[in-house]
Amino acid sequence: MKKLTMKQIEEGTGGRQIQGTSQAVVGEICTDSRRAKAGDLFFALIGDRHDAHKYLGQVIQAGCTDLLICDQAALEETEGGDQVNAILVEDTTKALQNLASYYLNLLNLKKIAVTGSTGKTSTRDMIWYVCQEKYKAQKNVGNLNNHLGVPLTILSFEEDTQVGILEMGMDKLGEIDLLAQIARPDIGIITNIGLAHIENLGSQEGIFQAKMELTNYFGEENTLIVHQDDEFLNKERIQGSYRLVTTGFDGKSDYIISRIDDFGAEGIQFTLEHQGRTQRFSLPVPGRHNAFNGALAVAAGAELGITMEEAARGLAKVQLTDKRLTVRGKNGIKVIDDTYNASPDSMKGAVDVLMHTRGLRSVAILGDMYELGETSREQHSLVGNYAAEKGVQLLVTVGKDARYIAEGAKKAGMKQVRYFPDKKAFLKEIDSIVDKGDVILVKGSRGMEMEEIVKNIME
After folding, report:
1. Most buried among 101, 186, 237, 342, by the most CB within 10 A?
2. Residue 331 half-sphere exposure, CB side, CA atoms within 13 Å?
3. Which residue intervals define the domain Mur ligase C-terminal in the entry (predicted)?
4. What's the pLDDT score for residue 197?
5. What is the mean pLDDT of residues 122-142?
6. Gap between the Cα atoms of 413 and 405, Å rounded
7. Alpha helix locations (H) across 163-225?
8. Concatenated DSSP letters for 99-149?
9. pLDDT at 48 over 90
10. Is residue 95, in this structure, part of any structural domain at all?
């Protein structure tokens, strides 16, 4: 982070310094009282369960003497509270967002925002590798992609950052609008429109409208990049004053994808054609669908003057964020760890990866997919049907709605199907189910914490 004075913090947040010196300098933003240290600016955030004003004493004892608060009485009641530099605001969360927007205006960088139902984090990571071939680029750490994570990511950008890549998540209308208002991206990318969060948004049309909030602050100088083989993301449906760039298989896209070779756990290769030029790409991450994400990353890089040859060098180095199609091996067993989250589309994509990965037996351990609303039973059943059609040899389903995955597979003629109502029941029998030579896919929604199963297998 570029160092800021308390005077600048006051200006950026719209707050008022109530004590201390306005010339004090801060080097990092901190929202966790356990990690606060000298030189940080501590934001006393108020959440659904915690009010950080309760920990001001702990923060001050750690040597952090620059505070941003919305409860002046709490500071006055804290030992040592009269010795700090403090700015008072009405809402510390809103102040954090305001400061992020202010901070971006101090930097000279291009901003890329990525959203979509699936593939956001993978695409974000790929863009980072592409951009690193020519620029100093920074991106979200882990999955800091919400109303707090995006501002904190922005405020972590170093002064000489040339490209800022921001993943933006949502589950309700208005959330992408807020993040887009803060970041004002130069380039926007929507990976796809799936069924994730349909419980909150009602329909895929609602999901489409929510994702399109990314363009609410776009003008003629902005670019939106989409994979137009998606039903909703195409030139017929998307209208705006900004420039639209498309990727796809149809031969009519700006970037035409062809010749995808799938090597299972070893990754993929694909060809991309743009304006008469053709480039072959090697991507060391599994999944045919990652050709779509890779093409979006190449298109984003091109907007910044990165050639396809340079982009190919970047994509060849990609390592995805943990728990996203990470392949692990031990004791003759190979595990495809895709436990970060799940939706119907990503479940099917992960099954494809499983079936392209060599082993003596293909095993899919699949958990519940959340936030599917009234479509949940049908979508779980369709995943089971897909697993059966693709030839998965053993299907294990875990969770309340996962029973419909099992039912769908059985209806499609699959014989080797096991269902467990919860992880505890499954883990009691795991040793009798998993065997040497197995290639095992483990996947489910974040709340299922399916990584516990991966840990058990690997141990």
Report:
1. 342
2. 9
3. 324-446
4. 67
5. 95
6. 13
7. 175-183, 198-201, 204-211
8. HHHHHHTTS--EEEEEE-SS-HHHHHHHHHHHHTTTS-EEE-STT--STTH
9. no
10. no
Residues 271, 350, single domain; the answer is no
Give the rounded distance of the alpha carbon of 346 from its chain centre: 13
Q: Report the distance separating Cα 224 and Cα 240, nearest Å.
A: 10
Query: Residue 54 CB: number of other CB atoms within 10 A?
Result: 14
The model's pLDDT over 186-219, given as tens digits with 9 standing for 90+, comes to 999 999 998 776 777 778 888 999 999 999 999 9
Instruction: Give CA–CA dist 437/325, Å, rounded.
Output: 19
Question: Could you tell me which residues are beta bridge partners of residue 361?
Answer: 438
Q: Are 247 and 253 in contact (CB under 8 A)?
A: yes
Q: What single string gives the DSSP state of each residue in 289-323?
A: THHHHHHHHHHHHHHTT--HHHHHHHHTT--PPTT
Mean per-residue pLDDT, 400-419: 97
Structural domain includes residue 102? no
Please indicate, yes or no, if residue 168 is contained in any of the structural domains.
yes
Strand, helix or coil for residue 420: strand
pLDDT in tens, 138-151: 999 877 899 999 99
DSSP 266: G
> Any idea what the CATH number is for the domain that residue 10 is in?
3.40.1390.10
Rounded to whole angstroms, how far apart are CA atoms 257 and 397? 34
Distance CA 122, CA 92 (A): 31
Task: Please identify, among 274, 296, 315, the residue that sits at the C-terminal boundary of a domain.
Answer: 315
* Distance between CA atoms of residues 103 and 97, nearest Å: 10
Residue numbers of the domain that contains 38: 4-90
248 is in an annotated binding site: no
247 is in an annotated binding site: no
- Does the annotation place 22 within a ligand binding site? no
Counted domains in the chain: 3
What are the angstrom distances between the C-alpha of 233 and each of 189, 208, 209, 229, 244?
Answer: 11, 8, 11, 7, 10
Chain-centroid distance of CA 37 in Å reads 29
Known binding residue 116? Answer is: yes
Pairing of strands 28-30, 4-5: unpaired
For helices 308-315 and 290-303, give the axis angle rounded to 10 degrees.
Answer: 130
User: What is the side-by-side strand order in the sheet with 66-69?
Assistant: 16-19, 85-88, 66-69, 40-43, 28-30
Contact 309, 335 (CB under 8 A): no
